[in-house]
Design brief:
This protein is an alpha/beta fold. Helices cover 44% and strands 20% of the residues. The protein has helices at residues 15-25, 40-49, 66-74, 93-102, 114-130, and strands at 6-11, 32-37, 54-58, 84-88, 106-109. The longest helix is centred in the last third of the chain and has 17 residues, at 114-130. The mean pLDDT is 93.
Length: 131
């Protein structure tokens, strides 16, 4: 593992979504090491094993959702300060406030475009660097 690369975890229960992330973020592979998880429990395992710099998670997932993941990450000193970008296709106005109140750093709405996603991850990486 190249320790100079930033560690980015992408969480979504839909494999095609994770494959899309992998494809659109491929140009960043020199700077970022990408990790993938299909559920909150796997995401927590990855977070325990790596010094993650950013987590991008879907809200609506089978079993534990993105909010459950954020709450679990907040309980550990090792993961509490990792910037979290929440991704959703939901247009519910209270969703963004709820995500931010729980500790999310940012919110992205599906469908994603590459430039927005890369810009938001870079922004979250800057936040992490300032901590």
């Amino acid at each position: 593992m190249d320790s100079s690369r930033k560690q980015v975890l992408l969480v979504d229960d839909e494999i095609p979504v994770l494959e899309t992330y992998k494809r659109i973020l491929h140009p960043e592979r020199g700077e970022w090491e990408l990790h993938f998880a299909q559920d909150a429990d796997t995401a927590l395992q990855v977070a325990a094993q790596h010094n993650l710099d950013v987590i991008v998670t879907d809200v609506h997932m089978a079993g534990k959702d993105g909010f459950d993941l954020i709450r679990a990450l907040q309980t550990s000193e090792h993961t509490a300060r990792i910037p979290i970008i929440v991704v959703t296709g939901d247009t519910e106005p209270t969703l963004k406030r709820r995500a931010l109140d729980l500790g999310a750093t940012d919110l992205l709405t599906k469908p994603l475009n590459r430039e927005d996603m890369v810009a938001r991850i870079h922004s979250a990486l800057r936040i992490k660097a300032y901590q």
